[in-house]
Design a protein that fits this description.
Layout (H helix, E strand, L loop, with lengths): L6 E4 L3 H13 L3 E7 L6 H5 L2 E6 L10 H11 L3 E3 L9 H9 L3 E2 L4 H8 L1 H10 L7 E2 L6 H11 L3 E5 L9 E3 L5 H16 L4 E5 L5 E9 L5 E8 L3 E2 L2 E2 L1 E4 L6 H17 L4 E10 L2 E8 L6 H8 L3 H9 L16 E8 L1 E2 L5 E2 L2 E2 L2 E3 L7 E5 L6 E2 L6 E9 L2 H13 L2 E3 L5 H8 L2 H4 L7 H4 L1 H4 L8 H22 L22 E8 L2 E10 L2 E6 L2 E9 L4 E6 L2 E10 L2 E6 L2 E8 L15 E2 L4 E6 L6 E2 L4 E7 L2 E6 L4 E6 L6 E2 L4 E6 L2
Parallel strand pairs: 1-2, 1-4, 2-3, 4-5
Antiparallel strand pairs: 6-9, 7-8, 7-9, 10-11, 10-15, 12-13, 14-17, 15-16, 17-24, 18-19, 20-23, 21-25, 22-24, 26-27, 26-33, 27-28, 28-29, 29-30, 30-31, 31-32, 32-33, 34-41, 35-37, 35-40, 36-39, 37-38, 39-41
C-alpha cells in the first residue's frame, strides 16, 4: 500500500537539510524546516517553504528534542519526517515516536535501527550470520578492568570505539597497556557527550587497512540491492576526509562478494530504506565493522556513478513503492570523489574554527563539479554544530579525470574569515600517491610532511598583488574624497607626489614575524614595485569583489585579494596566502599574542582539570581538557613547572584564547 507524501519536515540543519529539500521540491513535495536560535537566519531555513523554531542553540535543547520536532510536524501539517544524518537519524525512539504520531519516518524501522545502533549487538548479529569480524570484545560488561584484560587478550595496538556512535567520536587507538585506562576514560566521556551512551567495544587495530563501504537499499516488498561501494580510506582521527566511488582496484568478483554480504546484513535485520554497511579490508580479507542506518555524508559519489537520486529513492520507499531498479539494472559509470571542506586550522592540529564567513566562493560552476553546502557568505560557523562548510564532489569518465577536476575545484574555492582545510585537501589531490591510488587509513600520517609542510614566506608575486590591491583601493578612496566642487584639484590627482623627487609611496606588510616594505613608484600605466627579489613592473585593475587582472613584468594573470581589516588573503594560481597590511595611519596594530600562556585552543566547555594548584607537573602532562564540537582537546604542559593558579572550574564555558591556568617554574 502506497501513501503519497505531501509535506516533508526535515529534522536536521546545514547542507543535508538543504540537499533533502532540493529533491523534495523537485518531486512536488512541500518542505518544512526546524531551527535552533543559532540557526534563525540559516540557509536551510531560507530554503524551506516553512520553518519552525525548536529551542536554544545547543543540539540537546533543539535538534535532539523529539517532542519539539513532532510538535513542529503537527503544526505544519507534515505527513513525513526525513532525519538527514546525525542528530536523531539513528535514534530508534524517534522512529517509534513518528510512527505513533502517524507520521512517516523516512528511514528504516525502529527495530533495524536498534539492532544496528549498538556496534556490539550488530557484531554479535553478524557473527551469527557468518560475516567475518575483526578480533575483538563486543560484550555488554563494561567493567574497566575487564576491558583492560580483553585488550591484553586481543593484543596491542587496539581500537576503543563508542558502541552507539560514529564519525570518529569516542574512538581511541591504544598502543600499550599503560595508556589504556586514560584512553578508555576519554573515549567513554566523548561517547557519553556525543551519543548519550558511554558503552564501548575493543578491537584489534589493523595497521594498513582500507575502509570500504557498500550502499544498500531495501523496500517493504522484500527487495534489497547494493549500489556498489565507496572507498573512504583517507581519514584523520577516524573521520573521513576523502571518499570516492568505485573503490580503486576493486574487482567485479570482490564487489559482488562484499555487496552480497552487505545485502545479507540488511536482510538479517528486516531493513528498509537507505543504509551503509562498512567493512575494513586488508590484503585479500574484509571484515564487517558496522552498519549506518541512514543516508551517509558521502552519498553524492554513489549518486554520481549510478545516476540515481538516493533521497528520491528514500522518499519513494517510505511511500511504500518498490525499489526503482533491480540489482542487474544499477549502472556503474565513471568515477567520483568527494572532499569535506571544514572550518578547521591544519596549522593548529586541525582545531575546529568558529566565526563569520567573510567571503565564500565555491566551485559549483566548474564542469563535473557539484557542491552541497548549508552556508553562504556572511554566515557564521557556530561552536554548537559540526564545522563543515561544504562537500565538494567531482566526477569524470575515469579516476584520472576526476582527480584533475578535484584539483581544479579546490583551486577555485575561496574562504576568508576562518581557517579551513582547503590547502590541505588540495595537497592530497595533488599528491603522487593519491594519483596512484595508494590508499589506506594511514595515508595522511604516512605523507604528513608533504601534506602539512611548514609555512613558507610569501613570494614577490603575492606581495605585488597585495600592494596593487592596496594602491587601487586607496586610489578609489582618494578619488571619492576629492571635493566635488573642485574635481580638477591637482592634490586629488597626484598620489605619492613629492617635491623634486620621484612620486612613490611605501607600503609595509607583515608576513608572520617578517616585516616587508614595498616601495611603489608611480608610472603612467601602473607602478614599479621594489620587492625583496628586485623591481617589478605592475599594472592592472581591481574590481569591487577583489578580482584582480594584472600584468607582472608582462605576465598576465588573474587573482583575487580579499581584505578583512588589516588582513589580506591572496588567492592566486590555486594557492592561498595571507599577509597583514601595516597602515601607518592607525595608532597601533599590535596584536596581543598568546605565546607562553596556557590558553583555550577554541571556545568550549571545561570537562576535566587534571591538576591542582601547587602541583608540580612535567612537560607534556595533561592539564585541562576542553570539549568543543563533541571532541576533546587536551591542553598539555609546555615545560616542567608548578601550577600557580587555576582560572576556571569543570563545567565552565571558555572563549578561545582565555587563560586557563598559570604555570610557573618549579
Amino acid at each position: 500500500m502506497t501513501r503519497a507524501i505531501r509535506t516533508l519536515l526535515v529534522a536536521n540543519r546545514g547542507e543535508i537539510a538543504v540537499r533533502v529539500m532540493r529533491t523534495a521540491k523537485a518531486m512536488g513535495i512541500r518542505t518544512v524546516a526546524v531551527y535552533s536560535q543559532a540557526d534563525a537566519d540559516a540557509l536551510h531555513v531560507a530554503t524551506a517553504d516553512e520553518a519552525y523554531p525548536i529551542g536554544p542553540a545547543p543540539a540537546r535543547d533543539s535538534y535532539l528534542r523529539i517532542e519539539a520536532i513532532l510538535d513542529a510536524a503537527r503544526k505544519s501539517g507534515a505527513d513525513a519526517i526525513h532525519p538527514g544524518y546525525g542528530f536523531l537519524s539513528e535514534n530508534a525512539a524517534f522512529a517509534e515516536a513518528c510512527e505513533k504520531a502517524g507520521i512517516v519516518f523516512v528511514g528504516p524501522p525502529a527495530a533495524a535501527i536498534r539492532a544496528m545502533g549498538s556496534k556490539s549487538a550488530a557484531k554479535a548479529l553478524m557473527d551469527m550470520a557468518g560475516v567475518p569480524l575483526v578480533p575483538g570484545y563486543h560484550g555488554e560488561d563494561q567493567d574497566a578492568g575487564l576491558l583492560a584484560r580483553e585488550a591484553e587478550r586481543i593484543g596491542f595496538p587496539v581500537l576503543i570505539k563508542a558502541s552507539a556512535g560514529g564519525g570518529g567520536k569516542g574512538m581511541k587507538v591504544v598502543r600499550s597497556a599503560e595508556d589504556f585506562p586514560d584512553a578508555l576514560a576519554s573515549a567513554q566521556r566523548e561517547a557519553k557527550s556525543a551519543f548519550g551512551d558511554d558503552r564501548v567495544l575493543v578491537e584489534k587495530y589493523l595497521t594498513t587497512p582500507r575502509h570500504i563501504e557498500v550502499q544498500v537499499f531495501a523496500d517493504s516488498h522484500g527487495n534489497a540491492v547494493y549500489l556498489h561501494e565507496r572507498d573512504c580510506s583517507i581519514q584523520r582521527r577516524h573521520q573521513k576526509v576523502v571518499e570516492e566511488a568505485p573503490a580503486p582496484g576493486m574487482t567485479a568478483e570482490r564487489r559482488a562478494a562484499m555487496g552480497k554480504a552487505a545485502v545479507d546484513a540488511a536482510r538479517a535485520v528486516g531493513y528498509r530504506g537507505a543504509g551503509t554497511v562498512e567493512f575494513i579490508a586488508e590484503g585479500e580479507h574484509f571484515y564487517f565493522m558496522e552498519m549506518n542506518t541512514r543516508l551517509q555524508v558521502e552519498h553524492p559519489v554513489t549518486e554520481s556513478i549510478t545516476g540515481q537520486d538516493l533521497v528520491e529513492w528514500q522518499i519513494r520507499v517510505a511511500e511504500g513503492e518498490t525499489l526503482p531498479l533491480a540489482q542487474a539494472d544499477i549502472p556503474l559509470k565513471g568515477h567520483a570523489i568527494e572532499v569535506r571542506l571544514y572550518a578547521e586550522d591544519p596549522a593548529r592540529d586541525f582545531l575546529p574554527q568558529v566565526g563569520r564567513l567573510d567571503h565564500l566562493v565555491l566551485p559549483s560552476h566548474l564542469q563535473g563539479t557539484r557542491v552541497d553546502t548549508g552556508v553562504r557568505s556572511g554566515d557564521t560557523v557556530s561552536i554548537h554544530y559540526d564545522p563543515m562548510i561544504a562537500k565538494i564532489i567531482v566526477s569524470g569518465a575515469d579516476r584520472t579525470e576526476a582527480v584533475r577536476r578535484l584539483d581544479a575545484a579546490l583551486a577555485a574555492t575561496e574562504v576568508v574569515g576562518l581557517a579551513t582545510n582547503r590547502v590541505f585537501l588540495k595537497a592530497i589531490a595533488a599528491h603522487p600517491a593519491f594519483a596512484a591510488a595508494e590508499l589506506d587509513t594511514n595515508f595522511i600520517a604516512r605523507h604528513q610532511d608533504q601534506l602539512l609542510p611548514p609555512p613558507r614566506p610569501v613570494d614577490d608575486t603575492v606581495l605585488a598583488l597585495a600592494a596593487l590591491s592596496i594602491l587601487k583601493e586607496e586610489a578609489r578612496q582618494s578619488a571619492e574624497a576629492v571635493d566635488a566642487a573642485d574635481p580638477w584639484s591637482p592634490w586629488g590627482l597626484a598620489p605619492g607626489w613629492r617635491l623634486n623627487r620621484d612620486a612613490h609611496v611605501d607600503l609595509t606588510f607583515a608576513d608572520r614575524e617578517r616585516r616587508i616594505t614595498v616601495r611603489a613608484h608611480f608610472r603612467p600605466a601602473g607602478f614599479i614595485l621594489s620587492l625583496p627579489c628586485g623591481d617589478m613592473s605592475v599594472e592592472g585593475d581591481a574590481e569591487a569583489d577583489g578580482t584582480i587582472r594584472a600584468r607582472l613584468d608582462g605576465v598576465a594573470l588573474s587573482a583575487r585579494v580579499i581584505r578583512s581589516g588589516a588582513h589580506l588573503t591572496v588567492f592566486v594560481r590555486g594557492g592561498e596566502y595571507g599577509v597583514e597590511f601595516i597602515d601607518p595611519r592607525l595608532a597601533s596594530q599590535a596584536a596581543t599574542g598568546t605565546a607562553g600562556r596556557l590558553v583555550a585552543p577554541m571556545p568550549g566547555t571545561i570537562i576535566r582539570i587534571a591538576v591542582e594548584e601547587g602541583q608540580e607537573v612535567a612537560k607534556g602532562a595533561a592539564l585541562v581538557v576542553v570539549e568543543a564540537m563533541k571532541m576533546e582537546h587536551t591542553v598539555a604542559a609546555p615545560r616542567d613547572g608548578k601550577v600557580k593558579a587555576l582560572k576556571f572550574a569543570v563545567g565552565d564555558l571558555v572563549d578561545e584564547g582565555a587563560e586557563l591556568l598559570v604555570l610557573e617554574d618549579a
